[in-house]
Design brief:
Blueprint: H1 2-5, H2 13-27, H3 46-69, H4 75-94, H5 105-110, H6 120-137, H7 139-149, H8 151-156, H9 161-187, H10 198-203
Helix pairs in contact: 2-3, 2-4, 2-9, 3-4, 3-9, 6-7, 7-9
Length: about 200
């Protein structure tokens, strides 16, 4: 949504979610599972794993934002390039196959079961509240709408278009990471096709 507000888009959203899910799936393997890629790795603390996933995805978002904000590459091209790079990395690292074995206690910690109620929706509600607050109650949110309305007018008004664009794409990466993390925890596994075409749902 933030990318669209700035008159851009992010075609890498789905692949970023899959990327985050695969990283989370690798870090949270159960100890007695013979991991295909990192057999000696022990499952990390769940929140440390989430932080790592967020930092990596934020870094990719930051690079995408840099190309858009500093080099004036159209968002369509920059995010598509990011999408292809990420898909290549994930496919290469997973060998194109699904891998599971996420510690069974983890989904219950992040998506606890309460009868038949899908508690994962509570994370979505939390995300909406956080984003609404950022968009409407912070200086950054106001700058975001200003850049989307007219980058040149925003620049003349003292808004850093470069910083605003960089920040929104990095922030998007953080949200994609969290989405991928939840998705991997929900299904208990990850694959290189996780998140395929999610960006179309997001844009719609």
């Amino acid at each position: 949504a933030g990318c669209i507000i700035t008159a851009g888009c992010d075609l890498s959203a789905g692949r970023m979610i899959g990327f985050g899910g695969c990283i989370a799936g690798t870090l949270l393997q159960k100890m007695d599972y013979s991991a295909k890629f990192y057999p000696d790795m022990k499952p990390l603390n769940i929140w440390l794993a989430l932080l790592i996933v967020m930092l990596i995805c934020a870094a990719f978002g930051l690079v995408t934002g840099f190309f858009i904000a500093y080099l004036n590459v159209p968002p369509f091209i920059s995010t598509m390039a990011n999408m292809l790079v990420i898909f290549g990395l994930v496919t290469y690292s997973t060998k194109g196959v699904s891998f599971g074995g996420i510690d069974q206690s983890i989904p219950g910690k992040i998506i606890p079961k309460v009868g038949g109620f899908p508690t994962i929706i509570l994370w979505a509600v939390a995300a909406v509240v956080i984003v609404w607050f950022i968009w409407n109650k912070t200086k950054f949110g106001k700058n975001l709408f200003a850049v989307g309305g007219s980058p040149e007018a925003a620049r003349v008004s003292g808004v850093s278009v470069f910083k605003t664009l960089i920040t929104i794409y990095a922030l998007s990466g953080i949200f994609y990471a969290f989405g991928g993390f939840l998705e991997a925890g929900r299904i208990g596994s990850a694959t290189n096709n996780l998140g395929f075409m999610y960006e179309m749902d997001a844009i719609a």
